[in-house]
């Protein structure tokens, strides 16, 4: 599932494959960009902003994409077979002399003036993996609605950018708080923000997330993906439920023994 660490890693791979090289081919397979051809333009930078990807090109243009639940960018060598999915799922192809970047199942793909990037990402809170990370501002935004459940507040990218269902569930477990506890009642929200930063930094270069310090595939995460299995700390079966407002529910995993409180 693409979260801030996955998107950061994707940006690094795209930057290494495309930056400082002119595009030899461009195929944007969404209706509003079907006639756009960026071939000949040099890619100047690929960077992540929360869960957003910004591919910047000379001439002051930015190709903005978002992976959401199952989008991906894959890098291929010339002549290598594409393996990211069926061709009808391809939304973007960017080629240089040395690599081809293929975007699959991209729900968001738009071309902006680089000077207008704030139209796409200006609403985001401090980026956990970005150069402008601002812990006090992240805490301030989280506490602006103190009655909001912590699980929902963490997923709101306007508060801090980069957390998804996995880190939301793992952070609440590690802090021993119910995901339904009002954020204003979380002891030391500064610790919550610092732990989120530490987890994403530790995992941004790993192909598989680890929050338990155990490399075994079935023990890498404390609660996420472990519904019905024994809690790795106390043995109580981990629970799974959708959390959030109607129409905006997101998956939450938690241990009712280690995280007592609402819905336990």
Task: Offer a concise description of the structure.
The protein has 264 residues and is an alpha+beta fold. It contains six helices and ten strands; from the N terminus they run αββββββββαααααββ.
What does this structure look like?
The chain is α+β, with helices and mostly antiparallel strands. The chain has two domains: 4-121, Alpha-Beta Barrel (N-terminal domain of MutM-like DNA repair proteins), CATH 3.20.190; 135-254, Helicase, Ruva Protein, domain 3, CATH 1.10.8. Helices cover 22% and strands 21% of the residues. The chain has helices spanning 4-18, 118-121, 135-142, 150-155, 165-174, 189-203; strands spanning 25-28, 43-49, 52-57, 61-66, 72-76, 90-95, 100-104, 108-113, 239-243, 250-254. It has a four-stranded antiparallel beta sheet, with helices on one face. A four-stranded antiparallel beta sheet has the order 2-3-4-8, covered by helices on one side. A hairpin with a 3-residue loop joins strand 3 and strand 4. Helix 3 packs across helix 6 (189-203). The longest helix has 15 residues, at 4-18. The protein is globular. The mean pLDDT is 95. Pfam families: Fapy_DNA_glyco, H2TH. Belongs to the FPG family.
């Amino acid at each position: 599932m693409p979260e801030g660490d996955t998107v950061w890693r994707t940006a690094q791979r795209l930057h290494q494959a495309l930056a400082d090289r002119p595009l030899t081919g461009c195929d944007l397979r969404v209706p509003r960009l079907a006639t756009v051809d960026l071939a000949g333009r040099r890619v100047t930078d690929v960077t992540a902003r929360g869960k957003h990807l910004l591919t910047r090109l000379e001439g002051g243009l930015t190709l903005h994409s978002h992976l959401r639940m199952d989008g991906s960018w894959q890098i291929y060598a010339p002549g290598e077979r594409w393996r990211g999915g069926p061709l009808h799922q391809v939304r973007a192809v960017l080629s240089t002399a040395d690599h081809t970047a293929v975007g699959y199942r991209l729900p968001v793909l738009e071309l902006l003036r680089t000077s207008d990037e704030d139209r796409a990402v200006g609403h985001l809170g401090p980026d956990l993996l970005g150069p402008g990370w601002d812990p006090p501002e992240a805490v301030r935004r989280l506490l602006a609605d103190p009655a909001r459940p912590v699980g929902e507040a963490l997923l709101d990218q306007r508060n801090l950018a980069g957390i998804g269902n996995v880190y939301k569930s793992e952070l609440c477990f590690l802090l021993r708080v119910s995901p339904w506890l009002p954020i204003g009642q979380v002891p030391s929200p500064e610790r919550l923000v610092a732990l989120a930063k530490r987890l994403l930094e530790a995992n941004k270069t790993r192909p598989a997330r680890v929050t338990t310090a155990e490399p075994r595939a079935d023990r890498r995460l404390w609660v996420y993906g472990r519904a019905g299995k024994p809690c790795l700390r106390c043995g109580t079966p981990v629970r799974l439920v959708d959390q959030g407002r109607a129409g905006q529910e997101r998956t939450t995993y938690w241990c009712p023994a280690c995280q007592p409180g609402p819905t336990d």
